Amino acid sequence: MKKLYLSDSDRKIGGVCGGIGEYFDKDPTLIRIIFILLVLFSFGFGILAYLAMWLIVPKKPKEIIIND
Predict the structure, then answer these.
(1) Is 30 a domain residue?
(2) Among 13, 52, 60, 68, which one is most buried in terms of CB atoms within 10 A?
(3) What's the predicted TM-score (pTM) here?
(4) Is residue 67 in a domain?
C-alpha cells in the first residue's frame, strides 16, 4: 500500500510538494506551480492548505539496515 509522506530528498520548504510528487509519480515542480496558482487564484487558501498538509502529513520513517 502506497502512503503519502513529506519528502526528505526533494524539499524547498516543508517537503509537501515533493511528497505529493513522489506519491503520484509526477514532477514536484509541476505540483509547486499548481500550489502557486492555487495561492494566487484562491485568495490565500493554498497557503492554508500547504501549512495544514505540512502539519498533518507524516515524515517518512527512517529505514533501519541490519547487517548480520
Answers:
(1) yes
(2) 60
(3) 0.78
(4) no
